[in-house]
User: Which sequence fits this backbone?
């Protein structure tokens, strides 16, 4: 069973930066999309950013210009560089990888990001 392991979360002051990392426990073939979602306290999970196999990236409006996603399909790793963090960025961040070969999404266990004002 493939597992995604996230790291890099923590507590940071507003205006600071964090870099999240996510690595799969084994090679995943047929990766089509890698991305990050988040779940703010008391709210539903929402999409943050994703990168498609061709390198095209997509960002939610609320993180555009502040967050940068990157990934390596061969290594099944995905990163999220978060700059100019705001208190409203607080939440649990989940990485996700979709394989067209298995038709399955793989999810990480989540990493807590807390931005203090």
Assistant:
């Amino acid at each position: 069973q493939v597992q995604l392991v996230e790291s890099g979360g923590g507590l940071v002051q507003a205006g600071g930066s964090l870099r999240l990392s996510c690595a799969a426990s084994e090679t995943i073939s047929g990766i089509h999309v890698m991305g990050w979602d988040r779940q703010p306290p008391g709210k539903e999970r929402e999409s943050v950013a994703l990168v498609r196999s061709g390198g095209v990236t997509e960002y939610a409006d609320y993180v555009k210009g502040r967050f940068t996603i990157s990934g390596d399909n061969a290594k099944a790793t995905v990163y999220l560089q978060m700059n100019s963090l705001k208190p409203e960025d607080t939440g649990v961040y989940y990485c996700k990888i979709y394989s067209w070969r298995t038709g399955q999404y793989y999810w990480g266990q989540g990493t807590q990001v807390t931005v203090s004002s």
Q: What stands out?
A: The CA atoms of residues 12 and 59 lie 22 Å apart. The longest strand covers residues 31-39. The radius of gyration is 14 Å. DSSP finds no helices and eleven strands in the chain.
